[in-house]
User: Which sequence fits this backbone?
C-alpha cells in the first residue's frame, strides 16, 4: 500500500519571490484599451475646467487622478511590487504544505487552504504552477518544490486535464 504524499517547506516572501510571482502570473496589456479609464478621467476633468463654472480644484483633481491611473498601468510591475513589499506579508516566513487533500499556506498574516477538488485547472509556467479555482488563481513557485512535489502536481494537472 503506497504511503500518501506529503511535502512541506518554508521560504521567505521577499522581493525575488514577489517578482517571480508577478512575472509568471500577471498578463500585461499595454494597448490603448488599458488606458481607457485614465483617458476618460482626464477628458472629464478638462471638460469640467472648460465647460462649467465649478471650482477648478475639483476638475484638476480628476485630471491628476487620470494621470495617476495612467502611471499605475505604465508602471504596473513596479506599482504591484511596491504594494507587496509594504504589505504585512513582506519578508515573512511562509510554510507551504502539499498533500493528497490540499495545498496549505501558513504565515503570520495568512492562513489559506485550497483543496484539490476546488482547483479547476493547473497550468505549468516557466518557473512554477498556476492554480485556477473559483476564487481566482494562485501561483506556486517551482523553486521551493522538490522533484517529488513537482511530479505530484504534474500528476494532479494531468487528472484535471482529463
Assistant:
Amino acid at each position: 500500500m503506497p504511503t500518501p504524499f506529503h511535502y512541506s517547506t518554508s521560504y521567505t516572501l521577499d522581493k525575488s519571490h514577489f517578482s517571480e510571482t508577478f512575472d509568471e502570473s500577471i498578463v500585461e496589456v499595454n494597448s490603448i484599451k488599458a488606458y481607457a479609464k485614465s483617458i476618460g478621467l482626464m477628458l472629464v476633468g478638462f471638460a469640467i475646467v472648460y465647460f462649467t463654472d465649478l471650482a477648478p480644484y475639483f476638475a484638476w483633481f480628476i485630471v491628476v487622478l487620470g494621470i495617476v491611473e495612467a502611471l499605475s498601468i505604465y508602471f504596473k510591475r513596479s506599482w504591484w511590487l511596491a504594494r507587496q513589499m509594504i504589505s504585512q506579508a513582506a519578508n515573512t516566513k511562509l510554510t507551504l504544505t502539499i498533500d493528497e487533500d490540499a495545498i496549505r499556506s501558513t504565515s503570520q498574516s495568512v492562513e489559506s487552504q485550497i483543496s484539490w477538488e476546488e482547483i479547476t485547472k493547473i497550468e505549468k509556467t516557466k518557473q512554477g504552477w498556476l492554480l485556477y479555482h473559483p476564487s481566482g488563481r494562485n501561483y506556486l513557485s517551482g523553486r521551493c518544490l522538490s522533484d517529488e512535489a513537482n511530479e505530484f502536481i504534474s500528476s494532479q494537472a494531468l487528472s484535471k486535464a482529463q
